[in-house]
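Worked Example 4.2. Consider the chain below.
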Amino acid sequence: MLTRNLLRSSTGSFKSSAKFFKQLLQTRSYATGGGSNKTNHFIPLTLLGLAAIGLTIYNTNNNTKPPTASVDPTNSTIIANPLFPSKDYPDKINVVFVLGGPGSGKGTQCSKLVKNYKFVHLSAGDLLREEKNTPGSEFGELIDHYIKEGLIVPQEITIKLLKNAIVKEYNKGLRNFLIDGFPRKMDQAISFENSVSESKLVLYFECPEQIMLERLLNRGKTSGRSDDNLESIKKRFKTFVETSMPVVEYFDDQSKVVKISCNEPVDEVYDHVVEQFKEKKII
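Applying the procedure from the previous section yields the following structure tokens:
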């Protein structure tokens, strides 16, 4: 049960996050047993994730104070028990993270893959907006604040929504998932892969910022989205560069990243995606 106040003072929140990563590190150390190399490799990742949380808390407390909601970031039982551990589900679930700056075309390309190859497209942003608009949602006000400020919604909320959506589709017999706009921070990447499933591939769309800006401003004329305005867009660009690009680099070091240029017509971009998916045996 998620029962604690999510956003406390800077010191209190950082201590909670430190406790959370300490538990995660202990769990990882126990799991690897005598394999000291794996544990030592994991320590810098843990510290990097902890630093990312601390930076987010600092920025939040030094800008605008968001609403509060009940979430326990120290809930280690979620992190320590993967829903689809690779040793038990090596071929039963394929997770592809789809990353790229705001307006890079992630949703458009995912829609084409869903239509032609029957992937399940889960947009972290859409799930958050749906939760925000759900009457009586415990997290609605908090999510609304983060979206408007161009900040990253706390991972406990996002991962919970994604996990619920994956289980729902898995129970229908579906196994291939495109997760759009996630993970956006190192702690999200680590937590998801330890609580839900390891990713098979990261699809990263590269796009010039000016093109993304023009796309988003045009979309904002009809989308009705609260974050499709110039002020929010600039904040989202900054957040992506500072917190999401390290995630891309992290997975790139594992040879999991496929980079696709978005500075081409939609159909040509899609052809490149399909070519890479076939080469990587995703489809």
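The two ends are 38 Å apart (CA to CA). Residues 1-39, 41-53, 55-80 have pLDDT under 50 and may be disordered. Compare this with Example 4.1 before moving on.
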